[in-house]
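hey m, so remember when u said the tokens were messed up on ur end? i reran from scratch. heres the input so u can diff it against urs
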Amino acid sequence: MSYLNKIETAKVMSAFGALKLYADGASLADFTRLYTSGIASGFTTNPTLMHRAQITDYEGFARELVANIPDRPISFEVFSDEFDEMRRQARKIAAWGEGVYVKIPITNTKGESSLGLVRELSADGIKLNVTAILTLGQVAGAVEAVDPNTPSIISIFAGRIADTGVDPVPVMRAAVAMASLNPNAEVLWASPREALNIHQARDCGCHIITATPDILAKATMAGQDLDALSLETVAMFRRDAVQAGFSL
């Protein structure tokens, strides 16, 4: 990825306002640079992102990341489909660092609710990121299950909701209202598809949004004059046509 200069960084930070950015991915170098720049307030990853990045040593990668970023929240996900093994993995992951949150999916692959496990782990003081949530019923269950004395994150996949043709904004507003009943529960807008989602998440009152490098790059366009952007777009088409050597 290309890294933002100071002016671009200021634009991005302005767009986020009080909304916290959690960088999403599986690159130690990218995460470290985003941490150093001060843009990212936290970090998330998952087994799919780690697999795509060809990471084979889950614990080794995670421990190195925690060592490089010791004072920011970092979410690592369990990967078992059985609740007893999820429990073991969660307790092991939680021991890797003070800032570690354990991602527990809202169900296993059989559709069996994980809320019993969430309730147990949260009551024991383990910071959780309850993930793969798409419905308000799931939000309500997660908010009720996490202990009010333990920090937790409720990750709602707004981008996937939008992919189905449903506007995620009313869902996210309702989720924020539900989570307000738990003083230590934060709502995370997951799977953003475009820079507009940053502004939507902020206006909905979400606490956190995850973002990939391409979304961050687009966030620098916040407030850009549309006439100027139109001219810039035309200039891009002209430049690329000349460079391609097109003729008719």
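this time it looks ok to me. The mean pLDDT is 93. if urs says something different then somethings off w ur setup not the seq
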